[in-house]
Amino acid sequence: MARTPAGPAQGDRDTRFFGQPWALAHVFGVEMWERFSFYGMQGILLIYLYYSATQGGLGIEQSVAAGIVGAYGGAVYLSTILGAWIADRILGAERVLFLSAIVIMAGHIALALLPGFFGVGVGLVLVAIGSGGLKATATSVVGTLYAPDDARRDAGFSLFYLGINLGAFAGPLLTGLLQSSLGFHWGFGLAAVGMALGLLQYSFGRKALPDEARHVPNPLPRGRYPLMIGIAAAGVVVIVLLVLTGVIRADNLSLIVIIAVTGAAIAYFAVILSSRRIDSDERSRVWGFLPLFLTSVAFWSLYQQQFTVLTVYSDKRLNRDLFGWEMPVSWVNSINPIFIIILSGVFAAIWTKLGSRQPSTPVKFGLAAIVMGAAFLLFLPFAGGGENSTPLLAIVGILFVFTVAELLLSPVGLSVATKLAPEAFHTQMVALFFLSVSLGTAISGQLATLYNPGDEVPYFSSLGLIAIAVGVVLLLFVKPVLRLMRGVR
Predict the structure, then answer these.
(1) Distance (Å, rounded) from C-alpha 1 to C-alpha 124?
(2) What pLDDT score does 13 carry?
(3) Residue 67 pLDDT level (bands cut at 50, 70, 90)
(4) How would you class 317 by CB atoms within 10 Å of its CB: exposed for 0-12, middle for 13-18, buried for 19 or more?
(5) CA dist 386 → 139, 212, 355, 391 (Å)
(6) Which of 136, 214, 215, 251 has its CA 20 to 30 A from that of 65?
């Protein structure tokens, strides 16, 4: 199947969706509802795991519960490999996006209806697989809407990121209300309803996407299908055996995911760099992506502690009293999306206004790591306080800094992955960026097991200073990184 230029060309001329291609609205919508369900569920997941049975939870040890959440988050982004591979070799990005949305909805239904650990296991596996498939492909589909030199690309990805955070804002608010008033399973059920709405909306709009979104760049020969099916079946059997024999356990899940993601990332870089299907410029750009990948890992290992350490901190230490009413713990997870909604348009306007004069991608990544490290240092004035000792405005301010760091890296990372991607590995290069998120998220779960509320200064100061150092090192090597990126900024 030959590649058609219709998608990027039409997208380049279309400005009906806030100056962006109209087709962006369809991907914007499904991603918004998927994030509503994802963050709505994740906002109550950790406390569901460690709350006692009398509180409606499962009563797991707090550190183990934090590790499970980190491992689950890492598995979500690890599964982008599977979705990206199927998109690039078998179905195309758009079809995988649609099927993934169905799997996500099934996962949330399992969490809502199936009891205890069984429901958690089935639900989280389905949501992780489905979310991974949707994330890599949605980003790739957005990339097909723009010509390679379209100056609106970063602004378009920032607008797409706004859709993500509209859902991320509303999800924890509403699931938190249902959890606190009716119970955890009602909150999980609302997440399922949100994903169903997203699936319904997308099913009507998907035909308007360009043919480019359904293109299979590197089709798998039919004769290799049986081999791939056999490998997949063997992988499932191995995982089941490891669980049954106690090698994979609840208390070591985050470490297992770290090892798996590290191996997958090394293998992925090796496969792409050694491929005969890429030319010298494409190979150089992949090498240029490596320092961005490592900086991204450092960034996400701190940022994703919003769902581990910050959740525990909010439950135990944050003053959540609002005029005599106690705010649900999950509402803290909606603070960051509020700032994203406000600031994403600001950042998009800044990048559009600056055009070719805007900072290069390595500079944005370096600054993101520095700002993220500074956010962790802002916890220090409140370290060692008692129950309800941290004012809500302090967390609001810290999460504002989180947001500035995120907008310097996350939408920019999605954009640069599509620009640096070799032709034969288009969606899989996006998955490689998500592998950095996966590794950072899994590390955040492992780090959360080290968090000691009675001695917080070493934790926040050491992690903050390490992130700042990573950012400074990248800024010192901006010029050689740009040379490797071969004209991509």
Answers:
(1) 36
(2) 61
(3) confident
(4) buried
(5) 43, 56, 48, 12
(6) 136
Question: Cα-atom radius of gyration of the chain, to the nearest Å?
Answer: 21
Mean pLDDT, the chain, integer: 81
Strand partners of residue 17? 20
d(CA 371, CA 399): 11
C-alpha 270/C-alpha 274 separation (Å) is: 6
Is the Cα dihedral 262, 266, 268, 269 positive or negative?
Answer: positive
3-state secondary structure of 61: coil
Three-class SS state of 321:
strand
Q: How far apart are CA 444 and CA 214, in angstroms?
A: 35
Q: Which CATH superfamily is domain 14-484 in?
A: MFS general substrate transporter like domains (1.20.1250.20)
362: tokens are 């390595």
**CB-based burial of residue 17 (10 Å sphere; 0-12 exposed, 13-18 middle, 19+ buried)?**
middle
The strand pair at 325-326 and 321-322 is best described as: antiparallel
The token pair that represents 176 in the structure block: 């938190």
Q: How far apart are CA 103 and CA 232, in angstroms?
A: 17
Measured CA to CA, the distance from residue 285 to residue 294 in angstroms comes to: 15
Strand partners of residue 321: 326
Local confidence band at 377 (pLDDT 50, 70, 90 cut-offs): very high
Confidence grade of residue 388 (pLDDT, cut at 50, 70, 90): confident
* Cβ contacts of 338 within 8 Å, gap of 6 or more: 169
pTM of the model: 0.79
Residues 202-226 have pLDDT tens digits of 888 777 777 777 778 777 787 777 8
Please write the tens of the pLDDT for every residue from 71-109. 888 888 788 778 878 888 888 888 889 999 999 999 999
Per-residue burial over 215-242, b = 16 or more CB atoms within 10 Å of its CB, e = otherwise: bbbbeeeeeeeeeeeeeeeeeeeeeeee
